[in-house]
Amino acid sequence: MGPRLTNSAFFSDELADQLPLGMVVLDRHGHVVQFNRYEEQRSRRLRSQVLGRHFFADVARCTDVPEVRGVFEAHIESNTLEVDIPFAFPLAFLPTPRRVMLRFRSFEANGQPWANLFVEDLPEQETVEVRQNLSLLIHDLANPLVGVLDCAELARSEETDPA
Questions:
Q1: C-alpha distances in angstroms, 11 versus 1, 77, 106, 121?
Q2: Digit-coded pLDDT (tens) for 21-53
C-alpha cells in the first residue's frame, strides 16, 4: 500500500462523518484511506472492513469497469480527475439497485495524488413516492369530482326537460 493520508492533511473523520453523502478517499493506487459514516451506513460495510483495501477490486467490484476504474487510473497521476458518473449497482439488502452519482475529484496532499469519491444517492425513491402520492391525490379528487359532474349533468337535464 502507498503512503497514508493523515487526517490533518484533508478531512478529519468527524468532519467527513457530517456529510450528507458518501465520501471515500482513495490513494493513487485505489486503496481506501477514508470511508465516512454515511457510506458506511448506506453500503452496510464497516470502515474496519474497508480501510486499506483496494476500492475497485475488493470493496466495490461492480465499479471495476473502464467507465469508472479506467477513468480513475487515467487521471489520478496527473491530478486531473474531475468526473461525474451516473451508476447503479445491486445490493442484496435493497429491493432495487442503488442509483448514485459517483463524483471523483483528485487533489494533492503530502506531495502525492489522492482522490475523493463522493457517492451521491439519486432521488429515485423520492420520485417514486411523489408519483405514488400524486396518484393517490388524483384518485381521491376524482371520486368527488365525478359526483359533482353527475349532479351538474342531472341539474342540466332537469332544466332542459320540462316536467
A1: 20, 21, 14, 21
A2: 999 999 999 999 999 999 999 999 999 999 999
Three-state DSSP at 122 gives coil
- Contacts of residue 66, defined as CB under 8 A and 6 or more positions apart, other chains included, come to none
pLDDT at 149 over 70: no
For the chain, the farthest-separated pair of C-alpha atoms sits apart, in whole angstroms, at: 96
The CA R_g of the chain, rounded to the nearest whole Å, is 26
Measured CA to CA in angstroms, residue 134 lies from 124, 128, 141, 149 at distances of 15, 10, 10, 22
Question: What is the C-alpha to C-alpha distance for residues 125 and 133, in angstroms, rounded to an integer?
Answer: 12
26 grid coordinates: 482513495
Averaged pLDDT for residues 111-123? 94
| Residue 39 identity (one-letter amino acid) | E
Whole-angstrom distance, CA of residue 44 vs CA of residue 90: 13
